[in-house]
Amino acid sequence: MRMRKALKMQHRGQGPPAVKRYTFPADIPIPDYLRRTYWWAYLNPRGVRFFERQWLVNLILWGNYRRLRDAALAELGFPIRGKVLQVACVYGDFTERVARRLGPQAHMDVIDVAPVQLDNLKRKIKGHRGISLHRQDSVDLAFADGTYDYVVVYFLLHEQPGSARIRTIGEAMRVVRPGGKVIFVDYHQPSPANPMRYVMTPVLTLLEPFAMDMWVNNIADWLPAAARPAAVEKHTYFGGLYQKVVVTA
């Protein structure tokens, strides 16, 4: 609770200008769904070393990594101005690409609940300025309301059960400023004519037990009931298998 209060004061402009470059409090538990379902991909150091390969991430996304990455980056502009929050670390060079686009006064925060993921990202962004890493759970962010100009949720929602997914979206909407953007990139139900539909159904069912929710629900339907977004834009890619949804607060 003290860490949450200190970070909220920091982002309101109260207190010292910065607490640390990396804040990794030890009292945040790893969510049960992450420990049970994704320990091999995100919590095991061997798994992290295995999956942290650009070519492998691109293969997992059937050659669409660059296209999806660049679609998200396009929403941030160049150079990026203001404050950016990335909700959860990701494999590949997404964060480094954002870092290269940060303007002189821009800043980026990245949160993740797994220390091994933050340690991995710390190595990847070595030498980049304007980035801070924080150990936080996406369902309970420690930042004040309306802190960010951009919030990016990149291939996280499909890995969360429904209750956690709804809370993550709610927190993303809470911390974005009025007029700011929340950018979601994730799986989507492919069109009936897309043969990947029949390949991905067993793959996701076996390895990503929550991912099929993305096929039968719209991200916009999970927005908080009190949310009154100025705009919601949706684009699909690769025959509908992937989506980008941009919510302007």
Strand order of the largest sheet: 1-4-3-2-5-6-8-7
Estimated helix fraction: 25-40%
CA(first)-CA(last) distance: 27 Å
Number of strands: 8
Number of helices: 11
Find the structural class using helix and strand composition: alpha/beta
Biggest β-sheet, characterized?
A: 8 strands, mixed
Integer-rounded radius of gyration: 17 Å
In the predicted model, the low-confidence regions spanning at least 5 consecutive residues are: 8-20
What series of H and E elements makes up the topology? HEHHHHHEHEHEEHEHHEE
| CATH fold node name | Rossmann fold
Integer count of domains = 1
Task: Characterise the protein shown here.
This protein has 249 residues and is an alpha/beta fold. It has one domain (22-248): Rossmann fold, CATH 3.40.50.150. The protein is built from 11 helices and 8 strands. It has helices at residues 2-11, 32-37, 39-43, 45-51, 54-60, 65-76, 94-101, 115-124, 162-175, 196-207, 213-216, and strands spanning 22-23, 83-87, 107-112, 131-135, 148-154, 176-187, 231-237, 242-248. Strands 1-4-3-2-5-6-8-7 form an 8-stranded mixed sheet. Helix 9 (162-175) links the parallel strand 5 (148-154) and strand 6. Mean pLDDT is 92; it is low at 8-20.
List the helices and strands and how they pair.
Layout: H1 2-11, E1 22-23, H2 32-37, H3 39-43, H4 45-51, H5 54-60, H6 65-76, E2 83-87, H7 94-101, E3 107-112, H8 115-124, E4 131-135, E5 148-154, H9 162-175, E6 176-187, H10 196-207, H11 213-216, E7 231-237, E8 242-248
Parallel strand pairs: 1-4, 2-3, 2-5, 3-4, 5-6
Antiparallel strand pairs: 6-8, 7-8
